[in-house]
Write a structure and sequence with these properties.
Blueprint: E1 9-13, H1 18-28, E2 32-37, H2 58-61, E3 68-71, H3 77-88, E4 92-95, H4 101-104, H5 109-115, E5 120-125, H6 140-146, H7 170-190, E6 195-199, H8 200-207, H9 209-221, E7 252-256, E8 267-271, H10 277-283, H11 298-302, H12 305-316, H13 321-328, E9 335-337, H14 341-345, H15 348-353, E10 356-361, E11 365-370, H16 393-399, H17 404-412
Parallel strand pairs: 1-2, 1-4, 2-3, 4-5, 5-6
Antiparallel strand pairs: 7-8, 8-9, 10-11
Helix pairs in contact: 1-7, 6-8
The structure holds oxidized coenzyme A (CAO).
Amino acid sequence: MSKPLEGIKIIDFTHVQAGPACTQMLAWFGADVIKVERPGAGDVTRSQLRDIPGVDALYFTMLNSNKRSLTLDTKTPEGKEILTKLIKESDVLVENFGPGALDRMGFTWEHIRELNPGMIVASVKGFSDGHHYEDLKVYENVAQCAGGAASTTGFDDGPPTVSAAALGDSNTGMHLAIGILTALRARDVTGKGQKVAVSMQDSVLNLCRVKLRDQQRLDRVGYLEEYPQYPHGKFSDVVPRGGNAGGGGQPGWVLKCKGWETDPNAYIYFTIQGHAWAPICRAIGKEEWIDDPAYMTAQARQDKIFDIFGTIEEWLKDKTKFEAVDILRKFDIPCSPVLTMKELANDPSLRASGTIVEVDHKERGKYLTVGSPIKFSDMKVEVKGSPLLGEHTDEILEQLGYNSQQIAALHEQRVV
Ligand code: CAO
């Protein structure tokens, strides 16, 4: 089956997570993604957090599947010549170097545009161009702090907290992928490439937009009724950390189930949807609450919401998180067990849908990764192993017109 992005050639100058997550997804969808890496070293994640000595780390393999690897020292004249040839025949160049690195390499946007007017140059940076922090290098948690996620995550009596979800890295990569596809569509119409820039701060903030909503509500009315600080606690003039509160129109919380004393994940997330009040009461055996004016409206429940959660926890005491959800789902109550990575890795539904896939790697053997979270009716996404460092160097140089003697000389000089 042909893939929609077949025929799109991408120079992948990305490293660590933000950029590689973007180009990996484009590779899954059919683009020819050529990962350009420094000879001898490669992407730093190849050797970070290794679980098997001498073998590419999972950090690398899980973010670079379906790509080809070209080693190239782009700071040498010969390396620049190879990169120039590649630029002339590629569609997209993606990079997430520190600020200014591509320019210092001699490949400014103006120069790239001269070489190939159809080229799309896509960049991830910590902060956007012109921002007063634009010179900063940024990693995941730095972005979560800069984008408003950390100040609003965690509990009121604890410090700002970062999320395990890669809001700064992979999330920014997903934004960049949308930008690249949009620029490719624009190029179909105009024939012209363009620069696409996404900052990690902006991408985090985009996912925190409900917190900006809350800041404005707080400014106006002085309290936020869906936060655990309401109505008994205090609000300052900034959006507080809301713990596990629902955050939308329906209260929710993480509730203990059978075994919580020894199992740190024996919990479910329980949501009290306004119109589902009667089924909730029926499910937990509190029918008397259905028509009780002290409980029957969301407003009436607000000041005793944690007592209600306490009553639900009483009901949960003799049920595992899975048993509880199996009962609650019959009452149409939005809920989920708190799932561990181990449970997710072995979840038969995720295996069947291709969300968790087993992939073969030349040196490590089989490993698990997260496959495409996007499902298409006309395309099955096939996740292949990540390339070894420089695995496709010779093949790519041949395609650029270099003969075997020239290639041998480039190896000799450590250009590739
Ligand atoms: N050949 C020759 N030189 C190369 C090369 C190649 N193939 N690939 C990279 N380099 C050089 C760069 O040109 C740069 O050189 P100069 O600084 O001398 O111009 C140098 O390697 C270092 O690049 P860097 O600044 O990107 O790397 P770093 O390890 O110091 O910083 C990071 C890493 C992630 C903090 C930085 O790249 C960054 O802020 N990126 C933007 C934000 C981002 O994407 N962060 C998310 C990373 S995922 O958590």
